[in-house]
Design goal:
5 strands, globular, 112 residues, binds guanosine-5'-monophosphate, binds zinc ion, alpha+beta
Length: 112
């Protein structure tokens, strides 16, 4: 999508601190980290949020979770949280599917 911040980051048109990239997804550190380790994993294809996942695009989501597991292992993360906010009330501010990976501090439940 031409006017999407994360599409531009995935395409390298806007700089980011890259963690990982392959043909299907892009991972980069969050600009406003909420934990000592906080990165985002996004599909290169534009998907608006979890609510737009269906049989035509769920393969990339499965792939992203494989990537998250690999990156967490590579980074030595033994405990971490994966979060995706959907919609305004849940706190979604960028309308391109992304999974937050947060680690390195005690976390509370339920989330605020
Ligand atoms: P959301 O609020 O939609 O769940 O998460 C969006 C995340 O993207 C936020 O944690 C925010 O800090 C991050 N973010 C927004 N703009 C940028 C940017 O230009 N670069 C990076 N690296 N992160 C961004
Ligand atoms: Zn996008």
């Amino acid at each position: 999508m031409s006017d999407c911040l994360f599409c531009k980051i995935a395409a390298g048109e806007i700089p980011s601190n890259k963690v990982y990239e392959d043909a299907l997804c892009y991972a980069f550190y969050d600009i406003a980290p909420q934990a000592p380790t906080h990165f985002l994993v996004i599909p290169k294809v534009h998907i608006g949020s979890v609510s737009e996942i269906d049989g035509t695009n769920s393969g990339v989501v499965a792939h992203i979770f494989e990537v998250i597991a690999k990156l967490a292992g590579d980074l030595g993360l033994t405990s971490y949280r994966v979060v995706s906010n959907i919609g305004e009330q849940a706190g979604q501010s960028v309308l391109h599917l992304h999974f937050h990976v947060l680690s390195g501090r005690d976390m509370t439940w339920p989330p605020g």
